[in-house]
Amino acid sequence: MAPLFPALTRTPERTALQFGDHRMTYGALAAAANGLARRIGAAQRVAVWATSSPETVIAVVAALLAGVPAVPLNPKSGETELGHILTDSAPAHILAAPSVQLPTALAEIDRIDVDRNPANTFASDALEPDDGAAAALIVYTSGTTGPPKGAVLPRRAIAATLDGLADVWEWTADDVLVHGLPLFHVHGLILGALGPLRRGGTVRHLGRFSTDGVTRELSSGATMLFGVPTMYHRIAEELPGDPALVKALSTARLLVSGSAALPVHDHQRITTATGRRVVERYGMTETLMNTSVCLDAPPVAGTVGHPLPGVELRLVDDADTEITGEVPDSVGEIQVRGPNLFSEYLNRPDATAAAFTGDGWFRTGDMAVRGTDGSIRIVGRRATDLIKSGGYKIGAGEIENALLEHPAVAEAAVTGEPDDDLGERIVAWIVPADPQAPPSAAELADHVARRLAPHKRPRVVHFIPAMPRNDMGKIRKRDLHG
């Protein structure tokens, strides 16, 4: 397998990383990463304290150069979660920025400080394994039950995903990406940091997301923006009163949203104000990226496009039978095969076996419908977003989009709850635009019924001050209670 980052030796003078005022060339990154790779040696695994800093990127690149699997750690993890990950992955070292104070849970693990300015330079000879199946990263993902599972991502999965996205997004070394995503997750780390490095381009990390930071970077040469729906919602809210932000976004070559569905209302507000559309893609920790909207595809808000090169995708019913033909609103579970898949859950052969069908399809647990053009529209997770009411399979996502079109609704989430007559009834959780004058439940039910169908209207409406969210901005529906 070819090196993951050929630009480390081909373009040493080009800027690779920018975090605030700190810039690092490919040559400097190669020196720092190669030196750290030699210190890591032949460790079984290393953990990376994944702060939003150049040290995190150096540490991950070093581990990849050394052929040692890296385990990114969320600095906000609680003691129980952190303890489970450390016990499960058993890293030989913890890599961290020198200024970071690590929690006591890490006290027994050998610490290696990451030096962003090494005194010695090192030859950039290839240390990388050429086996595409070799483990590259172990990223922990929370399921619906039990402690987080470590998804083992092979080197081929990283290469396949990044090269597939380069194909559909026309991503080149000339692109400068700006984002403010955390670096312990697939989106921020693999797409947002390793993606530009594989292309030979530049990543500018904001540290913390802000619309002012987006304006500054897109106005000074950045060509791409990666974000999650929460970020794009904040952008959409700011656009009417911020002409500088409007101008900056209008110059971007590519705006990408991921990690959750971007509401259609925010799509429309951003496009109307800037003339630019936000491209959505679909992936998860175990699969990296599965689909994306292509740059030359007709703009259709709410879809995640078509499978990436090399990725097979099918929709199946409850019996794992493929749903064929162009049946409108036929909801099925997404299953995928391809080089982008993880190889196993660490130390969990039972969970690994349960995640795949007998012929190698990965069960994503995501529910979707396929458009007449073959594009995929996600309607939600099987566990939390598929509502079976009155004999219908209803995706929570389309109801949420309809609710967000109501001017009195700032945020919306939809769940199901048991109902003796319907099986499940549709429940809406609403953050009103004006907490002092919320819309009535009947008004919202009628609003949805007119836009979708009467059986998709919410039967119960709860008004809440804010949505519970995780670090990636996803709504934690399991924390919503009646």
TrEMBL record:
<feature type="domain" description="AMP-dependent synthetase/ligase">
    <location>
        <begin position="8"/>
        <end position="346"/>
    </location>
</feature>
<dbReference type="Pfam" id="PF00501">
    <property type="entry name" value="AMP-binding"/>
</dbReference>
<protein>
    <submittedName>
        <fullName>Acyl-CoA synthetase</fullName>
    </submittedName>
</protein>
<dbReference type="InterPro" id="IPR020845">
    <property type="entry name" value="AMP-binding_CS"/>
</dbReference>
<dbReference type="InterPro" id="IPR042099">
    <property type="entry name" value="ANL_N_sf"/>
</dbReference>
<dbReference type="InterPro" id="IPR045851">
    <property type="entry name" value="AMP-bd_C_sf"/>
</dbReference>
<comment type="similarity">
    <text>Belongs to the ATP-dependent AMP-binding enzyme family.</text>
</comment>
<feature type="domain" description="AMP-binding enzyme C-terminal">
    <location>
        <begin position="398"/>
        <end position="474"/>
    </location>
</feature>
<dbReference type="InterPro" id="IPR000873">
    <property type="entry name" value="AMP-dep_synth/lig_dom"/>
</dbReference>
<dbReference type="InterPro" id="IPR025110">
    <property type="entry name" value="AMP-bd_C"/>
</dbReference>
<dbReference type="Pfam" id="PF13193">
    <property type="entry name" value="AMP-binding_C"/>
</dbReference>
